[in-house]
Amino acid sequence: MKSILITGANRGIGLGIVKQLVSNPSSIEFIFAGYRDVNKSKELLDLAKEHSNVIIPIQIDVSDDESCNKAKIEVENKLGNSRGLNCLLNNAGVNKELKFNDINEKDMLDTYKHNVIGPWRVTKTFLPLVEKAVSGERNVLQASIINVSSGMGSVTLAPTMPFFYFDYQCSKAALDMFTVCFAETLAKSNIYITLLHPGWVQTEMGGAQAPLTIEEACKSIVECINSMKNEHYGKLIDATSGSSCAIIPF
Ligand SMILES: NC(=O)c1ccc[n+]([C@@H]2O[C@H](COP(=O)([O-])OP(=O)(O)OC[C@H]3O[C@@H](n4cnc5c(N)ncnc54)[C@H](OP(=O)(O)O)[C@@H]3O)[C@@H](O)[C@H]2O)c1
């Protein structure tokens, strides 16, 4: 993989993946690291200064068309005419942690806007660049779109869960369905499309009680992405299994 765009890379899992990629010797040329707000992105922007030849910070708000279009032009200019984008990792997401009695239309729609419409908007915007990267057989490292979902969106597993965040779980189940439909629609394109569950991770969203540090989780995520094969296409992959790429039922 020579290029990747990660949305929501100023903190949490997104930033952890940037750190993993830049710390391991590999053939990667450009890590396009998405952030929204300069004031909340100091760590990423400092890291990008340290590795200015590889990490390219890209301002992108996944809920805004204009922001996505602007980001696409920046990425395109950096890649140049002849190269496409090898991997789009739709990582940005929100969780309003709505319990049954908290459910309201505004918050439900807002989570859906970020977690479902957001990945769709970014995908639609960057699809031409990923298409440009296609070469030969379907290969995750050559041309891919990976949506970061959650085991909490699994309808099969939901009855075993101790509590429910209605907005979040409904939105991730919808993201899963979107991705399966999209993967089927583009099955002949040789773009690799799939979903990834990062595990329960100590981020702002995951909370301090989560079992995995960001570093542990992101090491496994990178191993997992590097190991994805045809049988993992259009599936929800448990990244905590690393190179085993265990499949979580929808
Ligand atoms: N942590 C876990 O245990 C866990 C488990 C399963 C799945 N996941 C999934 O993993 C992904 C990353 O989660 P995380 O734990 O790293 O969460 P986090 O620490 O809360 O970080 C969320 C990231 O998304 C960005 N973001 C939110 N709305 C955005 C928008 N409109 N445009 C661009 N960026 C936006 C945030 O940017 P700002 O700083 O600008 O807000 C931040 O970079 C999410 O999709 C989440 O659902 C996490």
From TrEMBL:
InterPro entries from the UniProt entry: Fungal_SecMetab_SDRs (IPR051468), NAD(P)-bd_dom_sf (IPR036291), SDR_fam (IPR002347)
GO molecular function: oxidoreductase activity
Name the record gives this protein: Uncharacterized protein
Keyword Oxidoreductase among UniProt keywords: yes
Family in the record: Belongs to the short-chain dehydrogenases/reductases (SDR) family.
A GO CC term assigned to this protein in UniProt: cytoplasm
Pfam families in alphabetical order: adh_short
Keywords annotated in UniProt: NADP, Oxidoreductase
